[in-house]
Design a protein that fits this description.
Chains A, B, C, D: InterPro entries: dCTP_Pyrophosphatase, DCTPP. Chains A, B, C, D: It holds the Pfam family MazG-like. Chains A, B, C, D: Keywords: Hydrolase. The structure is a homotetramer. Chain A is mainly alpha-helical and about 110 residues long. Chain A contains 5 helices and no strands. The model of chain A has no long low-confidence stretch (mean pLDDT about 95). Chains in contact: A-B, A-C, A-D, B-C, B-D, C-D. Chains A and B meet through helix 1, helix 2, helix 4 and helix 5 of A and helix 1, helix 2, helix 4 and helix 5 of B.
């Protein structure tokens, strides 16, 4: 039986993966932020010429679904590695942000 | 006592937040991917003129630390909302991707 | 009477502007490429929640028209500065690229 | 003898290229802005793991030089097409912006 997936476990796998390949010197916060934005753009690229309606159906095509899932993984990988090197807890950061947004944009 | 934070709980909060403001029509996969990339660029903007060494110290300044944490939250918010509308499990996607990368880039 | 605007003249103005402020050390190709992508995302931000039809009418609103024009200027500024530091002629690069695309995607 | 290259001539070539392939329906301002940002990120990708010093030498390697030049062309292509559909004169926009920046950031 395997333990359930969580963010800390994935961060550990990513850190071991990078360490085993001596990639840490490349993983400055500046470089990781750039890599994150590059992966986010690869996600945009999949959607760039689609109508809103077509974009809602991207998962119907198995090849496109695989490509989207793969890019989501890449974005998350760099986001978690950036958080790791900066000491940020991403889930707590988002929870706080939603709290602030609830005060900033009160529901009608 | 509050339940521990996890991705599913944050996705629920984000979905309720958007629903209460009638924002779902804007949340096409195409628009969410664009918004994700815009937030990733706001993160890059913080680092764009810094040297690698300066970028490693961004959390030393409380204002910059707050700004970085805030942008991390925004990136994660759009990533989780995109996954929600597309039915992608982001943690499983990343776990699979690390498996594939381990085969693709064997450690030396 | 002023000479007509051209790319070389604008590159000269940009180089003088940066030199007068001692900004050249920041203008590595890596940083200029990042700044270019950040400005391109600020352009995307204007359009991110618009329908295709709304996006076609952005110039009808004077404030939005000004904002779009301003971001176009920022993108071009960093593109021309990047070309300057790398010794690339942007117009010749594009002319060559269209030649190659005409061979690669023959018109029906 | 060929006429010298200028922005208007390149915009004409790009418009004819798109029209011959019936691509105009895809060329909404929103889609062109997204495509521009995707190409800008492909430029960032070339530099993302380089040190500032390595980034200053990218044109020394003919393959990398070609790749950088190609991405510069792609960024300019989408910028000029976006300007064309929006009726923006990119050189005048940048000239105005430099005027404004000179007032906003007076040289020391």
């Amino acid at each position: 039986m395997t333990e359930p997936l969580d963010v800390a476990k994935l961060q550990r796998r990513l850190a071991e993966f990078a360490a085993a390949r001596n990639w840490q010197p490349y993983h400055t916060p500046k470089n990781l932020a750039a890599a994150l934005s590059v992966e986010a753009s690869e996600l945009v690229e999949i959607f760039q010429w689609l109508t809103p309606e077509e974009s809602a159906r991207v998962m119907d095509n198995p090849d496109t679904a695989h490509r989207v899932t793969d890019e989501v993984a890449d974005v998350l990988a760099y986001l978690l590695q950036l958080c790791e090197v900066l000491g940020i807890d991403p889930l707590a950061a988002l929870d706080d942000k939603i709290d602030r947004n609830e005060r900033r944009f009160p529901a009608p």
